[in-house]
Amino acid sequence: MRPTSLAARDAGLLWHPYAPLDGPAPYTVHGASGVRLDLQGPDGARYDVVDAMSSWWCMVHGYRNPVLDEALRRQIDTFSHVMFGGLTHAPAVKLAERLVDLTGGKLPHVFFADSGSVAVEVALKLAVQYQAAVGRPRRQRFLALRGGYHGDTIGAMGVCDPVDGMHSAFPGLVAEHEFLPRPPAATLVDGALVSDDAEVAAWIGVLEAVVARHEGTLAGIIMEPVLQGAGGMHIYAPACLRALRRVASEHGLLLIADEIATGFGRTGRLFATDWAGITPDILCVGKALTGGYLSLAAMLCSAEVGSAISASEFRALLHGPTFMANPLACAVADASLELLVASGWQAQVARVERGLAAALAPASSLSSVKEVSVLGATGAVQLHGPVDVPAVTRAGLEHGVWLRPFRDLVYAMPPYVSTEADVAAMGAGMVAAIAAVHG
Ligand SMILES: *Cc1c(COP(=O)(O)O)cnc(C)c1O
Questions:
Q1: DSSP 63
Q2: What pLDDT digit, counting tens, does each position of 402-429 carry?
Q3: Is the predicted pLDDT of residue 3 greater than 80, yes or no?
Q4: Is pTM beyond 0.90 here?
Q5: Ligand 1, pocket-test mutation among 59, 112, 118, 149, most atoms within 8 A of CB
Q6: 75: helix, coil or strand?
Q7: How many CB atoms lie under 10 A from the CB of residue 91?
Q8: Would you say residue 218 has pLDDT above 70?
Q9: Is 132 helix (H, G, I), strand (E, B) or coil?
Q10: Is the pLDDT of residue 344 over 80?
């Protein structure tokens, strides 16, 4: 006889992200609408809560958004999937055109991938193919930042932080890349990111030295601009980004901006590279691309990179997933990006930023709290030690908010459609949960 609750049936059957088969029982979702989740705990308790996670930072327009629901329905009534080899369709072309327009036309070529990690794989392959195409076939490694996160597939893992990315679990599989120290921290002061000039200058010195030493083997530099997300919610100085852009150009390296977390307004700029006024050679987007509805990511590149590939031995970018440019995913992404602009994401993100700054301020006086930081629609509370994740999750639910802390961080990445009251509830729930569990 099978147990009746979903949580009990899930136990030992399903792996959850980074969790053991016999890990803590998950909460069951019965419904999701707007910014709210209807959850049930393993003990049967029911919670109607605001979602401070946007389902891992994707669900920017909220659950069951009528515009996105309608876009999907329309595409289902047309066709749900066709192969992309030899075929094309309106959702892919329209979405690609829209993405190129959002980059101001500076990155005119688009490759659709099925997830963020795959977009990173494709970006790394493209950079290596580019270097070979311009006569530098020995350049096959990358420079990455400590504290970075770029995905879980083997190629992407290689450029994640070597310690947090658990490289030691896969010796021989994960490639050996070069790493720079985490760029110096920056804080948001009156709308500007402020950091210590001397620290930034010293960091740039290290960057220049490392690139000069390894130039002959480096294909590119990969980074999350301004905000390192899953690697620890670290905000850093735009001056470091400008230096990465300059040094990459000086040494013939491609600059890869992984905006899978930061893209589409999350940091208060459309793309986080806008904080530094730079354009990467390669851009990866994902997560919020479909408004959180389906798995889709994209890689865009410059005209120069595109034409080098076209003139190369292979002429093609050597990748082609089965579900490439899935029409349902492209249709909902196109509608989501249209809605992003139509709903005025700047004002939405600014409202979330103000709300988080106000609601999280009281956390600074808790004894367990080391630092509070807010940037755009992101607010993080760093504790002095690791978070008791199950206890803070439960306390959050009891205070009306769904949280998924990690390491020493309790954070919020609210949906952009959150009202002032929603954001206040998220922030208050976070502070109350931290206070209840950690003091
Ligand atoms: C989430 C994330 C990825 C990986 O995306 P998936 O869709 O989970 O494969 C890559 N880079 C960054 C910066 C991310 O935040």
A1: B
A2: 999 999 999 999 999 999 999 999 999 9
A3: no
A4: yes
A5: 149
A6: helix
A7: 24
A8: yes
A9: helix
A10: yes
**What does R_g of the chain's alpha carbons equal in angstroms?**
22
Nearest-angstrom CA–CA distance, 167 and 173: 9
Residue type, 118: V
Q: Which residue has the tokens 């999937």?
A: 81
Task: Name the active-site residue from 51, 161, 258, 281.
Answer: 258
Which protein residue's CA is at the shortest distance from atom 8 of ligand 1? 116
Ligand 1 centre and the CA of 270: distance in Å?
18
β-pair partners for 412 = 379
User: Ligand 1 center to residue 274 CA distance, Å?
Assistant: 20
Query: Is residue 116 over pLDDT 90?
Result: yes
For the CA of 287, the nearest atom of ligand 1: 7
pLDDT at 2 over 80: no
Q: Is 287 a catalytic residue?
A: yes
Asked if 283 contacts 103 with a C-beta cutoff of 8 angstroms, the reply is yes
| Cβ 376 vs Cβ 57: under 8 Å | no
Tell whether the model's pLDDT for residue 373 goes beyond 90: yes
- Helix orientation angle between 66-76 and 327-342, rounded to the nearest 10 degrees: 150
DSSP state of 78: T
Centre of ligand 1 from the C-alpha of residue 64, in Å: 23
pLDDT bin (cut points 50, 70, 90) of residue 166 is confident
CA-wise closest residue to 431 among 388, 372, 351: 372
Instruction: Say how far apart CA 136 and CA 121 lie, in whole Å.
Output: 20
Q: How far apart are CA 383 and CA 438, in angstroms?
A: 9
In single-letter form, the type of residue at position 210 comes to: V
Other C-beta atoms closer than 10 Å to the C-beta of 218 total 26
pLDDT confidence band for 1 (50 / 70 / 90)? low
* Ligand 1 centroid, distance to 5 Cα (angstroms): 31
Strands 379-383 and 409-412 come out as antiparallel
Residues within a 6 A CB radius of ligand 1:
115-117, 120, 149-151, 224, 229-230, 258, 260-261, 286-287, 297
Residue with the larger pLDDT of the pair 47 and 3: 47
| Residues 102 and 337 sit within 8 Å (Cβ to Cβ) | yes
| pLDDT, tens digit (0-9, with 9 covering 90-100), for 233-286 | 999 999 999 999 999 999 999 999 999 999 999 999 999 999 999 999 999 999
Q: Burial level of 18, CB count in 10 A (0-12/13-18/19+)?
A: exposed
What value does the mean pLDDT take over residues 193-198?
97
